[in-house]
Amino acid sequence: MDASTDAEERSLKLLIADDTPINLALLTKLLTRKGHSVTQAENGLIAFEHYKADYFDAVLMDVHMPVMDGLEATQKIRSHEEEAGAPSQIPVIALTANTEPADRDLYLRSGMDAVLTKPIDIKTLIPTIREIIAKKNTGA
User: Which CATH architecture group holds 3-138?
Assistant: First the structure.
């Protein structure tokens, strides 16, 4: 296996923010079965605190959550990166049932990198995460 294939297949460290326990449990189970490490957050504020405290390859962010929603949490992450002079941004992928074109545009303008529709299809989830990570790493 060459280095690029190895990087594409490596285990990912993911932060999942979702206020619905069954969604957190299901995503965690699916991703850990595929060999990935998962940290859970029940709202955007907790997700932001985890983000500041640890390294993650990507964040899977529910849009509608109590305390702090996914849009505000993403904006806080982007502001923190800017203030820290971070050389690259962590990929943030919206997870939502609201995927009308206007909604998608709002999520992307808020700093999210991609939008995936709930219920999540595991067959598209991992390739989407890897694609966004690759784009971020190459500056595309």
Answer: 3-Layer(aba) Sandwich (3.40)
Domain boundaries, the chain: 3-138
Q: Which two tokens stand for residue 78?
A: 């982007």
End-to-end CA distance of the chain: 25
> CA 132 to CA 134: how far, in whole Å?
5
List, for residues 56-65, the tens digit of each pLDDT value: 999 999 999 9
pLDDT digits (tens, 9 = 90+) for 3-16: 344 445 789 999 99
Helix (H) or strand (E) holding 132: helix 122-138
CA dist 1 and 9 (Å) reads 10
